[in-house]
Design a protein that fits this description.
The structure holds two protein chains of two kinds. Chain A is α+β, with helices and mostly antiparallel strands. Chain A has helices at residues 2-25, 36-52, 63-75, 88-97, 114-120, 142-147, 156-166, 183-193, 209-225, 235-243, 257-260, 304-314, 317-325, 339-344, 347-359, 371-387, 395-412, and strands at 27-33, 55-61, 83-86, 121-122, 125-126, 129-141, 199-200, 203-204, 249-253, 273-277, 289-297. The longest helix of chain A is centred in the first third of the chain and has 24 residues, at 2-25. Classes of the chains: A alpha+beta, B mainly alpha.
Chain lengths: 418, 292
């Protein structure tokens, strides 16, 4: 009996020693997105581990699943996540409301544009370090435009004319996202260029005449000259079509450029692809330019020192230059001035970014906590427009109903009129 | 010694205890907790803690046309899929019950879809169904037949999804019914043959009635899963285009993890739970009466 007890005692004691040892060797849990920069971080983590001695347990997930996983973990108040990639415009408001971001006092934010920092700060305090920036562009096939004797479209009229001319049985004239919620971010630039908005002063305004005109244009464009089944397509469906040569022009975020010109993934010679400024609308040319991804420390993290070390490394200028060399468009301003980067990066990316940084709109969706549901509601209007090629008689009424619902969402979360 | 007499005296409690604890923690508790949440208005986007609101969440959900449409779609998807799977599954089982050359190979090939991962099946079928670069439209075009939009059109998305479900799950019905057929006694069939019954009459009046309880068991199992189908719908359409393929389970997921309306999603999930319970009880009653 005594021998048995002492055996148990030794086992328990060694268990305690092991547990204590594990807590001291330094391991953090990091969640990243299935995004080009997330991939780069994963590849570079061994260097971080070597130089700091901190072990990194990294997990990567698709963007909406990442949000869902983080939400589920944080809501149970027992999360072990230390650092995570986050989308300021998608979950920023909700996460900061629930107090899930740790404040980032002491971090130097001078290298980031002010309007991007507005979306990364809440109540005047910064909680997210912007990583990646993206803006709306027009990808196009140089060879197809040349064959048809067309110049690169610079206005919505020219865009529609070119789409009509280039459209055929085997090649769609133009593509853009049509899949409801996913389409909201890409339709935004069309709406801005008509002089419309999703929200203004905390109220939904996408039933205004400029916004409806924009949505009718978007529906007409995609309904008439878009790929078959476009209302089920987001970027992951359009990109393979574009790479297979089935689409002549594509409006979407700049971040896909690197994959489009990757010859191992593209069936068309990459010299035939190019990138241009998003065309101007009747009112203006103010395509979105946003920080799509940032990085934060979890407020529930019990290893904040090590977490901050990782965050500082992952958002450092060195890592940003690494990203830029891989055609990942980073948020830090200084890396865009770096001479080596400028010599290697596609001049089209540099030029379109400079344009968007000067004239662009810093949001691409209704900026609110219940943005997931709002995007679904606006998506219904977009799908109705595409299905009827912009001619739907119900569109104005439908938009009004959705505006009422989005305003209810704003009221429920205490954001109406703010 | 003291220990063993305690165990001996309480065997009837101790032996089932692990299973009871497991069921209690992982099945009963989540259901009761979901029921509790359905009486709250917990919404993660508001940043506030759950508030008890009685039947308010139920009223809000039941008055949403989207909820009623989701119920309709759940039934239409399930009814089509299970009906086709049962008829096809029984037919294949009857064929496989006979001896023929290449029977083992045929059995292996026919049962392969069952072991494939539903999400992988969904992704591959998405490529297959793509209107522009998909194999299906390419094959139809080569044969001079009209092409379709399949999962990209509101009109054909449910039937396209049913096709994928039938492809994957018919083998399950086949397996169960085949086991049932193997267990049938030969005497009634021989007696009928002696009485001059044709093969079709034997099938219709002897074999099928004898194996009906097994068929209904297979149908109950398949029905419960089909009502809750999530993986292929989520992987292939996410409930789209628009909401055209949104069933109760998909809607519950969206409300939980995209809208963060935990209270209302709990209502949707309780509704799904009741639908599955009632349908299963109905078929079980049918099975009990068919056994008599």
């Amino acid at each position: 009996m005594e021998y048995k007890l002492s055996k148990i005692g030794v086992a328990l004691a060694s268990l305690c020693v092991c547990a204590g040892a594990m807590a001291q060797t330094g391991e953090i849990r990091v969640l990243v997105a299935n995004h080009p920069y997330g991939e780069l971080l994963k590849l570079s983590i061994p260097q971080f581990e070597k130089s700091t001695g901190i072990r990194v347990n990294v997990e990567s997930l698709q963007e909406s699943q990442l949000t869902q996983k983080l939400t589920t973990e944080f809501a149970t108040k027992s999360s072990t996540v230390d650092v995570f990639m986050t989308r300021p415009l998608q979950e920023g408001k909700m996460f900061s409301k629930n107090g899930w971001y740790a404040p980032l006092t002491g971090y130097d934010f001078n290298d980031y544009p002010k309007n991007i920092m507005n979306a990364a700060s809440f109540g005047g305090k910064p909680y997210i370090v912007p990583l990646v920036t993206e803006w709306q562009v027009l990808y196009y096939r140089k060879d197809l435009l040349q064959q048809a004797g067309l110049k690169v479209p610079t206005t919505f009229e020219e865009l529609e004319a070119a789409a009509q001319k280039l459209n055929s049985e085997s090649v769609a004239g133009i593509a853009s996202r049509g899949k409801g919620a996913a389409a909201v971010t890409q339709a935004s630039s069309y709406i801005f260029n008509y002089g419309g908005q999703y929200l203004e002063n905390g109220k939904a305004v996408f039933d205004s005449k400029p916004a409806i005109d924009a949505l009718r244009y978007y529906g007409r464009l995609l309904g008439s000259y878009g790929p078959k089944g476009v209302t089920s397509m987001s970027w992951e469906n359009i990109m393979p079509l574009f790479q297979a040569g089935k689409v002549a022009m594509w409006t979407d975020a700049s971040v896909f450029y690197g994959q489009v010109v990757d010859q191992s993934k593209t069936q068309i010679p990459v010299a035939n692809f190019d990138i241009a400024n998003f065309p101007a609308g009747p009112k203006t040319n103010a395509p979105f330019i946003v920080s799509s991804w940032g990085i934060s420390v979890a407020s529930q993290s019990k290893k904040k020192d090590m977490a901050m070390k990782f965050l500082n490394w992952a958002s450092s200028k060195e890592m940003a230059i690494k990203g830029m060399m891989g055609n990942i468009t980073m948020a830090r301003s200084s890396v865009w001035e770096d001479q080596i980067v400028r010599s290697k990066m596609n001049p089209g990316l540099i030029a379109t970014r400079a344009f968007a940084a000067k004239h662009g709109t810093p949001v691409d969706r209704p900026y609110m906590s219940a943005v997931g549901e709002a995007r679904d509601l606006i998506g219904e209007v977009i799908i109705e427009s595409i299905n009827t090629k912009g001619t739907s008689a119900k569109l104005d009424q439908m938009a009004k109903e959705k505006v009422t619902k989005v305003n209810e969402l704003l009221q429920d979360s205490g954001e109406f009129g703010k | 010694m003291i220990q063993s007499s305690f165990t001996e005296r309480n065997l009837r409690i101790l032996f089932p205890l692990p299973a009871v604890v497991f069921i209690g923690l992982l099945m009963v508790f989540p259901i009761l907790y979901t029921l509790y949440l359905s009486f709250t208005s917990w919404n993660l986007t508001s940043g506030m803690d759950p508030a008890f609101v009685g039947l308010n969440s139920y009223l809000r959900v039941f008055s949403e046309p989207r909820f009623l449409h989701a119920i309709g779609r759940t039934f239409s998807f399930t009814a089509s899929a299970v009906a086709i799977e049962v008829v096809l599954g029984v037919a294949i089982a009857l064929i496989l019950n006979r001896a023929f050359v290449g029977k083992s190979l045929a059995k292996l090939l026919l049962l392969l879809p069952l072991v494939a991962t539903p999400v992988a099946v969904g992704i591959v079928f998405n490529l297959f169904y793509d209107p522009t670069i998909g194999l299906l439209n390419f094959a139809l075009n080569a044969l001079g037949l009209p092409q379709g939009r399949w999962v990209s059109s509101e009109n054909t998305v449910i039937s396209s999804l049913v096709l994928v479900d039938v492809w994957q799950w018919t083998p399950m019905i086949t397996l169960i019914v085949l086991a049932g057929l193997a267990g049938l006694s030969e005497e009634p069939v021989e007696a009928a043959r002696v009485d001059g019954a044709s093969e079709w009459q034997i099938l219709r009046y002897v074999t099928i009635p004898m194996v009906m309880p097994v068929i209904l068991t297979a149908m109950i199992l398949r029905l419960i899963d089909a009502l809750k189908t999530f993986d292929i719908i989520f992987a292939m359409t996410g409930g789209g285009p628009g909401y055209a393929s949104e069933t109760l389970n998909i809607m519950g997921f969206k409300y939980s993890f995209e809208y963060f309306r935990i209270g209302q999603s709990s209502v949707i999930l309780i509704a799904l739970f009741l639908v599955v319970l009632l349908c299963s009880l109905g078929i079980m009653k049918l099975r009990a009466s068919s056994e008599n």
